[in-house]
Structure formats: structure tokens, C-alpha cells
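Re: the multi-chain job from yesterday

Posting the exact lines I submitted so nobody has to dig through the queue logs.
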Amino acid sequence: MLGTTILLALREIRRHILRSILTTLGIIIGVAAVVTMVTVGNGVTAQVQENIASLGASNFVVFPVRTNRGAPRPFDDGDVRAVTQQIAGVDIAAGNAGASATAFYNGQDWDTRVQGGNNDLLEAQSVKIAEGRPFTVQEQEAGNAVCLLGLKVREAIFPPGTSPVGARMRLGNVSCQVIGVMEERGQGGGGQDDDDTVYMPLKTVQRRFKGNDKLDFFVVKYDPAYEAKVIQDSLVDLLRERRLLQGAEPNDFNVIDTAQINQTLGAVTGALTVMVAIIASISLLVGGIGIMNIMLVSVTERTREIGIRLAIGALAREVRLQFLTEAVVLCALGGLAGIGLGFLASLGLTAAIEVPFVFDPVINIISFVFAAGMGIVFGYYPASRASKLDPIDALRHE
Amino acid sequence: MSAEPLIELKGITKTFGSGAAAFQALKGVDLTIMRGEFVAVMGPSGSGKSTTMNILGCLDVPTAGVFRFKGVEVQKLDRDQRSLLRRRYLGFVFQGFNLLARTTALENVELPLVYRGESKAARRAAAMRALDQVGLVPWADHTPAELSGGQQQRVAIARALVTQPDVLLADEPTGNLDSERSVEIMELLRRLNADGITILMVTHEEDMAAYAGTIVRFRDGLVERIERGALAAQGSPA
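And the result, C-alpha cells for all chains:
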């Protein structure tokens, strides 16, 4: 009986195909909006989480900031050593100093960023070597002109299919030897492209590019068994002491907890999701009213048919079920179309903003069930009206 | 014939509206119909024949009086129970055919069986048998728009027959047909009656009423006269 009713509903919908499509447009758009926003949101979250992971999971990033007392005071190697030695739970503290430079090889050039960082920084930031080798201790201590290429730089100046390892290239006016290529990392936490970079030992960059022994920032990787808050407090106390800050003076540096970025991001994503849900509900409400309207029209148009069905012995609830099924099938088809549209839209959008496409089956199922549920909610009144028609009047209806 | 009447109306009244606007369509109708009868109901417009047919068809209930169908007091049944009664025992043929548009003859005939919950195969077989009874098997896949008026009415009769009802109610079945088609339909009804179906038919035309064994004449909400067997005994008037 239900199978027959569904077939009947599909036939009615096909008979008025244009009307059916226009009617379900609200639901199609509502569902597509939800699916798209959630999928793209998931992609953005995944991307940012990946970036944070590239900063390192349980990491602090410490950098100087400007205060009302003047320009930011940079950290140096001494600060990093003190952190490593004096704070319990710190696995790695590693400094970074960077400069802009143009990379040249064999007539090709490419503007990029040279970053000074030793193997411990690469480890703290989860940088992997795809090809070649990391720095040696000797290279790090001597400040040798050796470099690890980001993927973008390698693609920009080295011909495809050849290994750049062992080649001599030029960075600004520093000649250096390529010892390796880094794995792809994607967009960085600050929006920069982490593949568009060249790493050299810290000392090399400080000497040859910066001309001092200062750091731009340093990364602290701690043992996850320790509580982040405790380590952060010790870190702040130690740095205040080393920078001779008095009691009431504000910190002239920032400590960013990557785990905290994660939480903040979660909160932002949550707020966005709520907003999308509200917009989508309005769209679905409008769509639902459209369904109710067209179902009322359909009941009126088919009054005679209802009369015939009642006369030959259909029960009120059977007539109600027929129209309710039609509304639900219509909404469910709208839901499916919305999911399809949302799928395509999120594929396009994630590609456009270069975040991963993360298919979320849950939101697709929820959207579909919700759309079908709209059919019950907004189809009930018209269906109930159809079932209450008087067969004699309905048969006389022109 | 068995002593138990198939249909029994006793003191049936029907009032539409209320207060000053109230209109009494039936003013106390008594009528008994036995199994196997072919009854033609006649009378001028407003005489109460349609109201009586609606009550006999369990589509409407009397304001007062007793309507027994197979011994069951129909006026005491609720809407769904009357639906089930129609589904089980009654078949309807209307003046305007009332077939579902854009639906094949076969599917139209199958329709009552859908509500009986029969399987598709059983429905199809029964519908083809019914179409065979009215001689329309070759037109099974045609929609009403592709059929003549007479053919449409035969589809409607097949639809009424498919459930093997006890009673066929026909409301001016030839009202929309020319005389040749009308005769075809009446011959068909008479054949079905001969096979045992009780037929109640409203008609304006004496020619058509002549096919019936019993003619019930209505006037002003009352049964004016019942003529039994007189004309039918003479056979076809054609």
C-alpha cells in the first residue's frame, strides 16, 4: 500500500514537474546552504588545524611586541637557552629569524622568504624532509650556507623531474648548497604559504642576512604530560625576569598557545554554524510554506479525484496518507537535490579557497531527514483537509 | 428470493440546512429492495431521488429513520465504517464517468483493489477480468481522453464490478451518452443483473428505466409509486 502510494506520489510530482521544482526551490536552497556551509566550514577547520599542527601540537610561540615604552625588544639565543634549561616540561625551545630574499638558479628567479632555524625548530614545527637530509650539527654551529627548499621554491626555479639536492643556488647575494627539499605544508597559521620558503641554519641567516644574533620568535614545545598553564606561567615569569620588567609593567612579548588557537577556532566555527542554521531555518520555513501552499492547490485541483477515491471506499486516513506521502516525497526529493547542489557548491568553494573537501555524512543525513520532516509538518494540514472532504460534494466539484 | 431484504428504508427523512433555511429533501421514505433486483429510480429534479441514492450508497446519512443494509443499521455507522461498507459491498457508476484522468483504463479499474490491499498481480488479474466483462480488454492501456464516452462508462462499470460488489449504484449512467451507446450500457447492466448483481439506477429516461424490473417513482420527497415487473417482462423496448 505504501509502495503504491509512493509511486503515485512520484507520478503526480512528475506530472507537474516545473511546479514541483519551483515549489521545492526553498528547500533545495536551504539544504544546499546548510550542506555547503558545514562542508566548507569543516574544510576551513581542517586546514587551520593542519596549520596549527604544523606549528606543533603542544607548542607555545613566543614573540616580542611593541609597548608604550617603545619598539619591540627582540629575543636572542640566550633567552631560548634559559627556557630550555630552567623550565621543567620543556622539550624543545628553538628560535627563528627570517628575511626576504630572491632565490636564483640557472637563470630562474623567485622572491621568497629565508628562514633561519635549526633541526630542533623543524622538529617542533613538524617539518618533514621529503628528499635529501636535515642540517648537521657542524653546519648549524658553523653557520654554513646550506639550505632546505620549500616545495614552491623548488618548483619555481628548478626544472621538474630533476633533483635539486646537491645543486648550488643563490639566495640574495649568498651562494648556498641545497641539501634537501621539505614536504608540502600548505597555508601557514598567519596566512603565509609555508611552502614558499627556504630554511637555512639559524646562525647562517643571523650572520649573512640579518647581521645580528636576534630572533623574530621562538617556539617552545612542551611535554603534553605537563599542564600548559603551568608551563606558560613559568615561561612568562622567566622572560619577565630576564627582560627586567617591574611588577605592574605589562608584558612586552606574547605567548601564543596553539591549543588555545584551536579552542578559539572551535568557538568561532560553532558561532558560524549557529548562524548558518538560523539562516537555513528561515529558508526552510519559507520553503515549507511553499509546499503547504502547493499542496492546498493540489487538493483543490484534485477534489474530484478525492471524491472518487472516497466513494469507492478509501478511508479518510488513506486519503490523508496519500497527500502526506506526496508532500514528504516532494520534500525528500528537494532534500536530495539540495544535497547534490550543496555537494557541487562545496566542491567548488573548497577548491576556490584552497581548503580540503571534507565530506560529512552526518550533516547530509540530517539535512535529508529534516527536509523530509518538513513534508510531514507542512503537508499535514492540506492532507488532513483532503481527507475531510465530503464525497458527495467532492464528486460534484467541477 | 430470500425473506431477508437486502436493503430496507423505513421512515427516512433528510433535512439540509437548519432554521428558516432548512429544506426537507426526504419526508419519510419507505423502500425495500431484495437481492437480485434491478431497480430504476425516477422522478423530477428535487423529488429526492438523488438524496435517496446518496443514502443508499452510504455516502450520506439520513436525518431520521432506519436504513438497513444486509441487516446492518447504516445510519448508526461512522464515516470510516461506511467507507468500508462501500469498499466491500458497493460499486458506483456516475453520470460523468468520474475516471481518473491521465490514468489508464486498467489502472482506473484497479483502483478499488488498491484500497483492499491486494497485490499488484492480483489487482491486474481482477482488473483484466472486469475489463473483459465490459469488452474493453483491447483498450486496457488507454487513458480516458483516448476513449469514447461509451467506452469510458464501460471502464467505470468495470471499476464498479472489480470488487464483485453486492449492489451496483448507477447515477444516470446513460445521461452523457447518445441513444446507441445508452442501449449498449443498459444491455450490459441487464446482463450483470442476470448474473446476480443487484442494480439501483437513477434515470430520467423511461426508455432506460424500462430495462429495470422495478421502477420507483419519487415526488416531493416521498415514494410516489413502485412498479414491479410490469415493463421488464416485455423485454427490450428497442
